[in-house]
Amino acid sequence: MELIEYGMLEGPWVMGESYTVADPYLFTMAGWLKGDGVDIDQFPRIKDHRDRMAMRESVKRAMAEA
User: Fold this and answer.
1) pLDDT band at 46, cuts 50/70/90?
2) Alpha carbon of 18 to those of 11, 21, 22, 41, 63: distances in Å?
3) Is the pLDDT of residue 66 over 90?
């Protein structure tokens, strides 16, 4: 996660200004942090991304079905 936090996030989305297939993957991986005993607050850019993803209607629908 440190590599993603400090070296890979290019903008509001993983690859920059446009939403891509990489964004749901990061959302999923960030969701595993708590279960792995990692505080997401130590990765503010990843946390912001996760929060941004969680606001998407498609993500809300998918999470409601999970």
Assistant:
1) very high
2) 9, 10, 10, 24, 22
3) no
Its pTM surpasses 0.85: yes
As a whole number of angstroms, the distance between CA 13 and CA 6 comes to 14
d(CA 9, CA 36): 22
- Beta-carbon contacts of 50 under 8 Å, excluding residues fewer than 6 positions away, are 26, 27, 30, 31, 40
Q: What is the CATH number of the domain that holds 23?
A: 1.20.1050.10
C-beta atoms surrounding 18 within 10 Å: 11
Domain count, the chain: 1
